[in-house]
Structures are given as structure tokens and as C-alpha cells.
Amino acid sequence: MRKYIVGFLVGLLAASAMPAYGAVQSLIGKKVGGELSISYNGEQIGKGIIVDGRSYLPVRDTANALGLNLNVGKEGVQLSVPVDPLDQIASKNEEINGLKSQIIILNNKRDVAVRERDQLKNALSQPNKVLETARIYLDSLGADDPRRVKATSSVDQLEKQEVEDKQRLADLESEIVEYDNQIAALEAEITELQK
What stretch or stretches form a coiled coil here (predicted)? Predict the structure, then answer.
């Protein structure tokens, strides 16, 4: 609720500052018609002035009372709402939780890749009995035997599968390394955010 009130007051100040800023030259030499007390939540924050029936607030006192940041420069007066440290902490925690969720997902993908890699390693470390049997069968067939074409095709297909399995194993090793790198980068990002 406080943010809305502060936002409204900043808007009000900005709207009233426009005529005041535009009327600065016409105020030079004008007579101050009176003073008025400025209070916020029942607390006196300063004195304003009345010129030509218009009231003007003391910007610094008003900004301080409302908890606004004030910057006076060549461009004029800039008022801004300060960032709430609790909002910053909540935002940081939300970002950290998002990164932790990404790490969980990557760890799950890594686990799947490790299981598949281990199964392939195990399968490739054992002699391929089917391929050995097919080669023996192929060698037992005569050169003009009609079954030789089909047996040759089977041996070629089994050898191709073995090559593909070895390539898949290499790909899985690369994937696991990439997952490890991504996880390490996310963990480093979390560590940096927690500082």
C-alpha cells in the first residue's frame, strides 16, 4: 500500500512540478504571497510558499519525508522510489531457486545419459556373440551358396550397429561432460548471487 501512496505522491509532485518548472522564469521577481506548513502523516516536514495563488513545496524536505531519492542536476530535479532491500532479497532468492531447478533438470538428464553410457559400455565390452555366430555361419557357406547374400547382409548390419553403438558411446561421453559444465556454471552463478 505504501508503494501506491508514494507512487501517487511522486506523480502528484511531477504533475505540479511541470507548471512550476515551466513557470520558473515568470516567478523571478514575483512576490511571495504567503507561507504554508507542509505535513505528512501529521508530522511537520517543512514550509511551502504561495506565489500568485499557487503553492510550491520544498522538494528536498518533501522527498526526505516520503523516503524518495532526490537527484538535482542540469536536467532538473529527479525523484525516484528507492529499491526495497527485501524486494531485492526476494528477487535474488527467486533467481537462485530458478537456477537450482535448472540444475535438478540437468542432473536428471545427466543421470539418464550415464545409465545409457554404462549399458553401452557393458554391451561393447562383452564379445558380440551374435556377430561372431553370423561370421562363423558366413564362413561356413560356400561362395555360390544362395544363403550367402543374406548372411553377408546380416553380418554387415551387425557390424554397422556396433560402429553406431561406439559412436553413440562417444556422443554420450560428450553430453555428460557438457551437462557437468552447465551444472558447474549454474552453481558458480548461485554462489555469486549468494554473496
Answer: 155-189
